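Reading a protein record of the kind used here takes only a little practice. Think of the row as the fold of the chain written in a discrete alphabet. A record is reproduced here so that you can trace the correspondence yourselves:
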Amino acid sequence: MKKSQPIRMCIACRSRFPQKDLIRLKQAKENIVAYDNEGRSFYLCDECSINEKKIKGLIKRFKQEEERFIKLLKELIKNG
């Protein structure tokens, strides 16, 4: 019998996806960074990671530096 996949919710659009299809991030002090198996995390779907309006909302919500945050997302998307 095949085991079911964990389902997680995108923090931006609130849609649910299989965990392996999402980008996993965490907040370390004041910066958003890639998840490193330590602490609490949140997920972002591929669509929201390229949607300018959603990115600007996240930048405002987490008080991030725009260039650094966008660079992090592009790097994570590229690495898969």
Remarks:
- The helical segments are 46-50, 52-62, 66-79.
